[in-house]
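Work through this:
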Amino acid sequence: MWCAHGTPPRLVVLTVSARRNDLCHDAIVLPYTAYLRVYQPITAFSPRDRRYWEGYAESPDRPKRVNALAAEHTESLGRTIATPPVVAPSDESGDAYLRRVNDRLYVCPWQTRLRSWRAFGEFTESMPRSMVEAFVPAREADRAETGYRQWRDSGALAEPGILSSNWTIPIPWFVAFEPQERCLVLSAGPTRTLLYLTRTALARRRLDHTAAVLRERVGEHAVSSSAEALTEWLATTAHPESLLELDYGDCRTCSVTST
């Protein structure tokens, strides 16, 4: 449906080793859904937001990284199974994924309401209106669409700092990273998890270089629309000093797509 997350049947808690890459920390991932996250440096936020996120980082009550994705997924699932379903929360989430690298704080806000609005928009565009109403009452759908339209009309940033892909991992997502930025995590069971983390500036250079080579050697048609969309997303969303993370679950159940 329109959830900002998948609804997999099980939760896998894994620990990422930081011995070979000091950007890697503890992670919790849900199988079957891949996430691409931009972590903005704390200095990229307004003074008001900076004070909030600095206080949030020190709060003992915030969802810790090892539980954050599970908490986000639980909240989203609760809205989905409510009667009637709630497309998006009334207020934007005050939670975020956090990273510290070289004693510097990086923040990736959940943006649950914005991501839910956008996911529901994609859902409605792919379904006839009658089918949409089979999942969501017309009043709730109208509420969500009105809220999203008013948000866009206000001039607020409409691009989230998190992208997700269910079941498949777009090839352009891998272009942004190099093998040495990969952490392979082995659990006690058969599940394997991969986590990539790099500087966004490096990711953008790699994407631009790959696109340039493809255009020169193959032709304009060789650069996929998803690669162009990813480049544009980073250009409009990511601070020059931000971090980019690719986080996905059970390697055995995810496939790769070139779309």
